[in-house]
Amino acid sequence: MRNLALFTLIGLLMFACESDQPSSETPLAVDFLIPKPNTVEIGSGYFALPSEAQISSGELGEDWQSTLQFWADVFSEESKSTWKVGGQDNAAIVVEKSTALSSPEAYFLEINPQQIRIQASEAAGVYYAFQTLRQLIWANEGHIPVVKISDSPRFAYRGMHLDVGRHFFPVDFIKKYIDLLATYKMNRFHWHLTEDQGWRIEIKQYPKLQEIAAYRKETLIGHYNDQPQTYDGQRYGGFYTQEEVKEVVAYAAKQFVTIIPEIELPGHAQAALAAYPELSCTGGPIEAATKWGVFEEVYCPKENTFTFLENVLTEVMALFPSAYVHIGGDECPKTRWEECTECQALMIKEGLEDEHALQSYFIRRIEKFLNANGRQIIGWDEILEGGLAPNATVMSWRGEEGGIAAAKQGHNVIMTPTTYCYFDYYQSQDPGEPLAIGGFLPLEKVYNYEPIPAELSAEEAKYILGAQGNVWTEYLSTPGAVEYMAYPRAIALAEVVWSAKEDRNFKGFTKRLNPHLRHLKAEGVNTANHLLDVEPEIISGDGEGIKVKLSTPLEGSEIRYTLDGKTPDVNSALYQQPVSVEGTLQLNAQAFDQGKASGRPAKIQFQAHLAAGKKISLEHQPHPKYNAGGIGALINGVNGADERYGDAEWLGFSGKDLIANIDLETSQELESISFRFFNGPGQWIYLPQKVEVSTSEDGTTFNLANSQNINTFNEEKVVNVKVPIKSKGRYLKVHVYNLGRIPEGNVGAGNAPWLFVDEMVVK
């Protein structure tokens, strides 16, 4: 495999050599490139490469020669023609070193009718110039437009992550994954190699890691929240040999992708402890985890544990030349440490205040060892707890707060918040989407991400190295599933971290993206093309009734709709302005491309009730991460999905009560109010403890109409609660009491639970 995503480039080059010149009626395309370059100066005319092309290398260094040879080999292999490095100044492509370009990844690309010239200060810039050239050739069917491009990345760290611990992927796919990163000018691959469910890298000093830790006896079927949980009964696993790792590292290096290995510690270590239980606090027996979540079995901070980890990391460093080693540091329960006499004695000896400080002690010891060997650590933002290790770089995933705190302390930061960068979240509200962990992260939200928080000063912002997309694989068991979740969201993030902030425009991006997706699909990449999916936006809660806006990510598409439940066709009503909805009905909408239905339709069932479309206000706002439909989603007549809580209808409150005030506009005889609550303990989503409903005629003086306690622990995924009212009033006050704290013995014990609510139906 070599540079998979060449988009049949070479076939187009051969076509260019044999065909007539482009028609004057078909302008040459330049506004097509992804990521968008800094500056583009378009000329007139085109340049066509000869069938036997030469690349002039001059007196360039070995790394430059290697990069040029890489491209010559790729082109020669795919075209079955001859590409050579070492031509003279009259060669088709001339590459020059320029001291005027300060960034090692910057380049200048000039194409005129006679020749292509590339300038860069380092070989990396040359590589990215060729990536841009490739897209120009493809976009113009081999006739390369006359153009001058000056380009350099906004951020130094442009990354994608892949979890191979939950599910294992073969070497060929890892190379394909790297090809795709490089195609869109990403330069870091974060390889998540160890987990509770499997250890994926050969360590010669500890063979049980390959024999035991690399395998689990079975795997959970379906979603973690499905009750009762069931398993497939099939042994599962695998690992990469050290020779395979070396092969992948060398493969990535040729495409200027640095691989950052992750060896999780002190938590997410259950698979390793299954092989070496003496490194735990209990001594075992322990098995590799067979389901997903956070587990209490963690490394015990004793001397034989540190010896083990230092020996493991020594072998890892010999395989990966990266300056960084990721050591995890996230989701480390402290239960075992609290019960461990050795841990408590160590805390007294070292003067550690609590178990969070003990985790900091653990991280600092590992950092000191890696620093002594010329390496730096990256850790998830939990490494801030108990005090940050002196030279650590923080990967901020639980929002941006950890990254902001680290940057203010003068530590380097890589932004990867769940809200924008977790590509295992659903990307479409279509009910036919493949099973995912939850959440909702559409393409537009990824594209609109700004990695530098507004809270940082210009000086503090310098510590933001870049951003990274994460692909966790609890529910992704095949390469195709990974590709579907990663692409095109990874392409959107690639433009976020490369292109200038002021140049980004989502509608323009989708126009450029659409042909990329078609060609990726043709090259065997299982992309998720939602560009022609109808995306409804329901407007409610302002007292002006219910209206529905319809759009698609790809600008200019034709949308037709019906309100009688029928499937729209080319003769159905053409969408031109928000559609008013009254009563109980079904709205169906479909995009059309040249008279043919394209993309996924929207189907929305509305139910009439007294509060639908009325005015609502909340005392506590939902968490921004789970407020896609706005507070009006609570009374817009539409239920959220039964299988997932991440769509626009579910509102999520983290540790807060839902307190809503509803104006029914006139005094009404009220019978009941019904609620739907999502129940997902595996994601810290718990049912409320109580609901209170009060009524009022003036909106000031409220009388309690009814209250109802709720059985918090229920196996149903969506729980319906109906509260009789038997009262009269114009105004309703609804108080839904969050559980407050997750009780001991439950997932997330001690933390603030999430409360998820969708439609409140008033009768």
Which stretches of 5+ consecutive residues score pLDDT under 50? 1-20, 23-27
Strand fraction equals 25-35%
Which second-level CATH architecture of the largest domain applies?
Answer: Alpha-Beta Barrel
User: How many whole angstroms does the radius of gyration measure?
Assistant: 28 Å
- The best one-word shape is globular
Query: Major beta sheet, specifics?
Result: 8 strands, parallel, barrel
Round the mean pLDDT to the nearest integer and report it: 92
Kindly report how far apart the N and C termini lie.
Answer: 63 Å
Number of beta-strand segments: 36
Number of separate structural domains = 4
Task: Characterise this structure.
It is a single chain. Strands 8-9-16-17-18-19-20-21 form an eight-stranded parallel β-barrel, surrounded by five helices. Strands 1-7-5-6-4-2-3 form a seven-stranded mixed β-sheet. Helix content is 25%, strand content 27%. α4 (171-183) runs parallel beside α6 (242-253) and α8 crosses α11. With 763 residues, the chain is of the alpha/beta class. It folds into four domains: 9-151, Chitobiase/beta-hexosaminidase domain 2-like (Chitobiase, domain 2, 2-Layer Sandwich), CATH 3.30.379; 160-522, Glycosidases (TIM Barrel), CATH 3.20.20; 535-606, Sandwich (Immunoglobulin-like), CATH 2.60.40; 615-762, Jelly Rolls (Sandwich). It is globular, with a radius of gyration of 28 Å. It is built from 18 helices and 36 strands.
